[in-house]
Amino acid sequence: MRTRRWSSAGLAVLVLVSLTACGGGDSKNLVSHYTEETETVNLFSPMEKTDPDAENVARTASDQTVTMAEEALNVTVVYRTYTAEDYQDKTYDEVCLDRARNNMDDLYLLNPDTILALGAEGKLMDLSGLDSAKNLREIIRTANTVDGKLVAIPQEVVAYGLFVNKDLFDRYHLDLPETPEDFLECCRVFQENGIEIPVGANRWWLETFVFAQAYAELYNGGNTEAEIAALNSGAARYSDYMRPGFEFLQTLMDRGYIDAEKALVSEAIEGEGEDFLAGKTPIVMAYWGAANTDTAYGKTDFTMEVIGFPSRLGQMPVMPMTGWAVGAEAEHAGDAMAVLDIITSDEALSLYSKINRVISPSKNVSVECVPALKPLNERIEEGVYVLGSNASMNVEQWGNTCRIVRELLGGATVDECMAAFDALQDAALNG
Q1: What is the pTM of this model?
Q2: Which residues contact 70 (CB under 8 A, 6 or more apart)?
Q3: In the chain, what percentage of residues exceed pLDDT 90?
Q4: Residue 234 region by backbone torsions, left for phi larger than 0, else alpha for psi between -120 and 50, else beta
């Protein structure tokens, strides 16, 4: 998988899983066969519109919704795509920032850190007036609102959970963990029974443990807006929220429950997937869609369940957000808005969710999930989750937390990691 190149935080793996390559460059990958009779909308994303040698359900579903818009509006959507080769060492996020700031495209698929940055700079259109925006779940509005403007809308809600080998838990008479203490006890039992490394980890996704413990009460305690306001004003410190999760990760490392050296250099799924599928590793972390596809964990030789991460409030799903956005000064902004309104309509999202079997951003669209995902889905339907990204926070969460977790894996102390959060918060307060 080469999805790792389009996001500094690895989030792109979630939305467009199993991309055979991360799209294309400026010119060689443009779909140029459009006629003069139709209007054109330029779309920048990490994927090709077509690749005859690849099977990608996510791409197929997205393409079908784009086709709905093309036919309804008599427009042609021209895909402009990203490859690491064309952009050398630039991440997808860096390229998106450059292109959006220079009005090079109309419609962009953005990661949460990029949504926050471009929204704060006034580079994205306010989408709150779209018909499709009226049907959004409140979580979508919260995560993608910057300075009072809804600046991005996704086609799916990405949820992270713990993928567990239920057969191994049953073999050692273990209940699925609810709290951090439960989790550590399960790891202890596994290790005492010869499973040397109970938790398979990679360099992107350990921050999910941190978010579950940092923000369980913030998002589920009935005082979310006030707590975020305190963080944005400096009355509260991000480091105070983050410390328990980082201390938990340090404990996992100290006890050998995760291999920090391996995790630091391992890509998502590539580093831990083989041992999990072979029944050697009882626990990994991954995104919702990984349970739906044969290329990840969709077919196992054991009973798999997907649960939330351990927290003081029990199993906690973690939900970061990506989204489609329109450039504020895009050449074809009006047509791009119309396209976005159609591809995020209930009709299009019903098709998309049915094909991909994912959580829809629309409160009116639901889909039957695979059995392995039901424990995670039940928590989400109860309204119990934390956001891994939230544009209303003045410090970007997903990418920064991922980066600082990697510093911990590389030998930084918890105190040094907390100092990094303090520095980010101070910069936001002074900026």
Answers
A1: 0.79
A2: 38, 76, 77, 339
A3: 65
A4: left
